[in-house]
Design a protein that fits this description.
This protein is an alpha/beta fold. The protein is built from 22 helices and 8 strands.
């Protein structure tokens, strides 16, 4: 049996390269052609797409899902679900998680890749139950990172626990592009020895190792790999689909996809990408990620924060501070929302000059256990400094959250026309209210004009904010780490 391929172009690829700004109107025309390719699944939803659709594009994300489902008649649709965070940035009550899963399945979602930022599997329980109840496919997810406590044994143990929770498949999610090819081989081999479910690999190309990691993982038995159409691949996105299809062609791992069928897709998205040029980041291989472990999208946010403070010269100090903050907080993987928590705190520490003299409310909530149990204990001195003698949550954080749907229904009032509107309101109250009011008023400007104005404003802002040209050099110690302490061998 050859390797199967999930295409990420309609979700993670444009999230990673184009600030999640691709509009539904640019997805629908090509969807029938993508449906004919023979992908294992197509990732189209979740992650930041939900928030961005409402906040910036004036689009209903639920409507996007329904329209895509009409066009993908053969290929399963897939989404990224942040466990108890759903598609937001905090934990929501169980009634919200259950309703979201029910509506997502009803509107066309098939496969739910469910993860938790700190790998606390208690934060997956409600989502797994809800998706199973609604009839969806549960892909239990392991967030990959490197630290003294993240070992192969830990990942194997998590895989077994995900099976026990009821997962239908398992995903190894390398959101920062840190996965060494030989570690990919070892982890895949070890998990496949004890878990009989399909295993899928998700990598970003940030460090330049993703394609090699995919090849070694497939050689070790990886069943499915994530790729993006070449014209929206690499950089901080996923590996190019066509390249890996060609790599495995004629071998026992042959994906059996037609390169000639993929070529028009690449041409189409190459043209689409031009429309969103104003939202392009500095897309390149960044081996510095091997040292600071900061995903590419997170670096762009840090640059923006520092630029607003007139402190772009502090970037090097912030990147050096991030691993220290991460260690203090128990080595959380850097993925939403922990990447924002660690990054924002590192910025504060660097700007103020005294560590933890000022802390964000999210950092305090993290230390108090509101995001779950960290992979390792929080440093005792840091915990005392941030939380003092306050209570630390030891049980499942969502057990402390009251049901939220009825209150949201009351607050949204006549603006909400459906259960989907109410769930959107719970997840993003202010953003959704503005969207619903705009919709009720008749919708205003056409989408294409909104996109054009947004692009022009973004271009003008970036031009005004741009500092002296120049790249950030990769510290020599990054290469030492790449060469390195083999933390996953223990």
């Amino acid at each position: 049996m050859g390797v199967k391929i999930t295409d990420t172009t309609l979700r993670d690829a444009h999230q990673s390269l184009l600030a999640t700004r691709m509009r539904t109107e640019d997805m629908l025309p090509i969807a029938p052609d993508m449906d004919e390719v023979g992908f294992h699944s197509v990732e189209v939803w979740g992650g930041a797409t939900f928030d961005t659709a409402l906040r910036f594009l004036r689009e209903d994300p639920w409507e996007r899902l329904r329209e895509l489902k009409k066009r993908f008649k053969k290929t399963p649709l897939q989404m990224l679900l942040r466990g108890q965070n759903v598609v937001g940035y905090r934990h929501y009550a169980d009634d919200v998680v259950e309703k979201f899963a029910q509506l997502a399945v009803k509107d066309g979602m098939d496969i739910f890749r469910i993860f938790d930022a700190v790998n606390d599997l208690r934060n997956l329980e409600a989502a797994v139950r809800a998706v199973k109840k609604a009839g969806g496919h549960v892909q239990g997810t392991i967030c990959y990172t490197i630290s003294p406590v993240h070992t192969t044994e830990m990942y194997v143990k998590m895989a077994k626990e995900l099976v026990e929770m009821g997962a239908d498949s398992i995903c190894l999610k390398d959101m920062a592009g840190l996965l060494h090819p030989y570690d990919a081989y070892e982890i895949t081999s070890r998990i496949k020895q004890v878990v009989k479910l399909p295993l899928q690999l998700h990598c970003h190309c940030t460090s330049g190792m993703a394609e090699m990691a995919c090849v070694k993982a497939v050689e070790a038995g990886m069943d499915v790999i994530d790729c993006a159409i070449s014209s929206l691949s690499q950089g901080t996105s996923q590996p190019p689909c066509e390249s890996l299809v060609a790599t495995f062609e004629g071998t026992e791992h042959d994906a059996r996809l037609d390169l000639e069928q993929l070529a028009p897709l690449a041409d189409y998205f190459a043209e689409v990408r031009k429309k969103y040029a104003a939202f392009e980041g500095n897309v390149k291989v960044d081996t510095g990620v091997l040292l600071h472990q900061v995903p590419g999208g997170m670096i762009s946010n840090l640059v923006s924060q520092l630029r607003e403070q007139g402190a772009l010269d502090k970037l090097k100090q912030v990147l050096e501070e991030i691993p220290r903050v991460r260690a203090d907080l128990g080595y959380p993987p850097l993925v939403t929302p922990t990447s924002q928590i660690v990054g924002s705190q590192a910025v504060l520490n660097a700007l103020i000059g005294q560590r933890y003299q000022q802390v964000t409310k999210e950092t305090r909530a993290y230390v108090q256990g509101h995001y779950g149990a960290p992979p390792a204990p929080v440093d005792a001195d840091v915990q005392q400094k941030i939380a003092g003698e306050g209570e630390i949550i030891k049980d499942r954080p969502a057990d402390h959250i009251e049901p939220e749907l009825e209150k949201a229904k009351s607050e949204a009032g006549s603006l909400a026309r459906s259960d989907e509107d109410i769930v959107s309101y719970v997840l993003f109250p202010q953003v959704t209210r503005e969207f619903l009011e705009w919709r009720q008023a008749g919708g205003g400007l056409e989408g294409e004009l909104i996109a054009a104005i947004a692009a022009a404003l973004s271009h003008d802002r970036r031009k005004a904010e741009a500092g002296p040209a120049g790249a950030i050099a990769t510290p020599p110690s990054a290469w030492r780490l790449a060469g390195r302490q083999r933390l996953l061998r223990g």
